User: What shape does this take?
Amino acid sequence: MILSLAIWLPIGFGIILLASGSDTSKSYVRWFALFGALLSFLITLPLISDFDRSNAGMQFVEKFPWFARYGLNYSLGVDGISLWLVVLTAFTTVMVILAGWEVIQDRVAQYMASFLILSGIMIGVFCALDGILFYVFFEATLIPMYIIIGIWGGKNRIYAAFKFFLYTLMGSLLTLIAILYLYNQTDSFNILDWQQVRLTFKEQIFIFFAFLIAFAVKVPMWPVHTWLPDAHVEAPTGGSMVLAAIMLKLGAYGFLRLSLPIAPDASLWVSPFMIALSLIAVIYIGLVALVQLDMKKLVAYSSIAHMGFVTLGFFIFNPMGIEGGIVQMISHGLISSAMFFCIGVLYDRMHTRQIADYGGVVNVMPRFAVFAVFFAMANCGLPATSGFVGEFMVILGAVDYDFVIGLLAATALILGAAYSLWMTKRVFFGKIVNNHVMHLKDINAREYLILGVLALLTIGMGVYPKPFTDVIHPAAIQLLKHVAISKI
Amino acid sequence: MQAQDLLEILPELLLLISACFILLATPFLKEAQTNDEDVFYTPRGASVAFQIAQLTLLILFVWFGSRITELPQTIMNGLYSIDPFSNLLKCISSIAVWATLTYSKHYLIDRDLFRTDYIALVLLALLGQFVMISGANMLTLYLGLELLALSTYTLTAMRPNYARGIEAGMKYFILGALSSGFLLYGMSMIYGATGSLELIDILRVTHPDAVMRLVFAFGIVFLLAGLAFKLGVAPFHMWVPDVYDGAPTAVTLIIGGAPKIAAFALTFKLLVTGLQSLSTDWQPILIFLGICSLTIGNLTAIAQTNLKRMLAYSTIAHMGFMFFGFLSVFDDNAYSAALFYVVTYVITTLGSFGLLMVLSSKGFECETIADLKGLNRRSPLLAFVMMLLMFSLAGIPPTVGFIAKLSVLESLVDAGYVGLAVFAVIASLIGAFYYLRVVKTMYFEEPIATELIEGKGFAKIILTMNASIILLAGIFPEFLTTICLNAMRSSLQG
Assistant: This one.
């Protein structure tokens, strides 16, 4: 029942807020939303403590008939791949609610409700073991995010919301055909059944590419990444945090849950292509990030580069790579949401995201600067932060696969350091040139709390990643064993 | 014909009697200051007529609803069949017309359309649909179709001093008459080839390798052209946007709502019940019509600024999509997918036009997309309702529109048309764009008027229920799809 609660509790709180909240009772709405988010987060904690680390299969399984005519089931479960993503989602929602505490003054109830509902839906994606259930949750995430970007976004928000929605919808519609095709072959919508069914090479290729379009857009992989910078730049801070921390992971998760196990032969055959795309994302997008003038765009491009690491790890087919990819997903969830929050802190005060408008912020906001510099370091993979663990594992895996690929992937560390630190230098250090910067106020207790918690987790995960890798390891090994067996 | 047959068609008789009663009796409820020139225009008479009509429709809804599992039987010497299929469709048609009248009450009052003859014509149109749904003979089907069509032609042009309505009525009449001619010509060809008008007999004597192949082929082409006109499927769709746009919104809903169910029944009866063995002849035509409709409907809808026109083009696309459910051979799953598609489409259409009427007021016609600007600020509830409706039309989960699309796509993949399924999906993506634009207008733009939408409490409650059905049937689709499947099975056995 824990998984169902984790999905439906935030959605329930969201619906209550939608029905009862209004702009006349803003503080009640905020506290109620925070209560809902905290409760939903606490609900997921037993997942960690009760998770059987020696078991590679699905745990906390729930299964009820849902739509018997097509054999649809409401079936949920988590394994080592999805466990931490579920917890991360619930946790990020708490952070997002806190992040929007003061900034959002307009239609607060709808804002908070959107994030709570979105949180439940995304947890649903990570838990669903039924193909259609997965698809329904996967698609349903678009609706709240579309509204979040469209209502509370920046100047160009409507364009960005449309681009976001249509791009991702385009990707996922073909998935539906693949799902129906698999149903046609197996007479079941159970993802675990699909993983066992034998398919010819041609079928596998078709299914792999139908899934690829959906997941590649979501990740996003080069060259279908162009929606992300727009969406990020226009989204409100909370929207960017969720987008970077969780939504991008939906695509990467889809590779692990569907593409690789269902079409292993195709995945192996396509892997050089996928590795090439990932490397382009890592290197080329890293270079693109270097020249950005807008802070949010820079971090958005850095997200694409980091997700390139994730897909690279998945398609080199060794335990280091896959585990590193998953660790990178979780770590990126923490760091990128912190980075976006930092930009939000500056934007709320200055109403500009241009790097050129800043300079010398450290003189007026010393406490904030400590955090911001720390997260910039973590973003470029400083050892002892979580960013290092994932990237290091992926690079090790890549070297194991092919030295040149490992070498190319490793250049990302240099590029990452270049764009992160250069931005930090231009924004935080040097002389104050802009008069507005003189009057900036340092972060308040709420902002301190958010950044502090995220920083502690980033360090914790960087110094002692064992709790994460222990959970991920059996599932990753099992996945690789499964992929190694041909399905033709 | 036996006296017992009259008992079986009691609901149809009840409908006819209340329509006649409304026409005859209500003019006698005179009011102090009535308009003498127009005997039908008495506000008190119209209210009474309205109540009678609503009551009749509810009785019919319960009557058919309680008989969904009845055994199939053919009465009136094979002219009329009553089975779970027809009972289900009539049940839904009745409640759809009931909802239509509920939504349109204030709209009609504000536009001098709240008249006894209006209500009587609505009931007669429903009677025509009943006859179409139950007809087991080509002539009965045609009779029902004409009763429906003539009532709706009149309704379209009925608003006094409203040139657009009259123009729309004229167009609708001329093209409708033409298409009836097509249909009748096709029927006559089939009759010539088989020597029978009864669908059962036609099914019995048709073979794919019959000698009269050419005559059959001609007949089918004409039948399909007529059907395509009636359903508003491209390339026979020209009248749809003009009529949807020109007619008063209440009438648009009467044309675009319940009759789609009857049109589905007509298509199903002619093609599947009657001409099943010639499916290799009519299926390629359906594919062509479906592709045309999805392309033209979705692409043209993007360019529309008028919401009613946009919904008209969306209807074209949806009807094309529905055709795809007919592409498998004698598969109850596929046909019931098409049936389910139509039913959910009608429920969604009811809501969307109903919402337009609730938003309209005296002297203000809510019909362009811009009229919905900032609806979220003026009425969060109605904006949410409209959002659900639009997402359902776009086929985005968890609304019922998704389940409907899923069922039809599943039947397509099952029948081996994977390429067509991919095409349908791409067309849906294009469709999502313009539905999304409506949501954008409601949620992201500032309102032009600041006053809240007040009054019309009952219509709002029904509208909310309508939207809840769309959401609930999307989350728990079992109930409705099972009913559709059972109805379809029993119909195919018969």
Notes: Chain B has a mean pLDDT of 86.
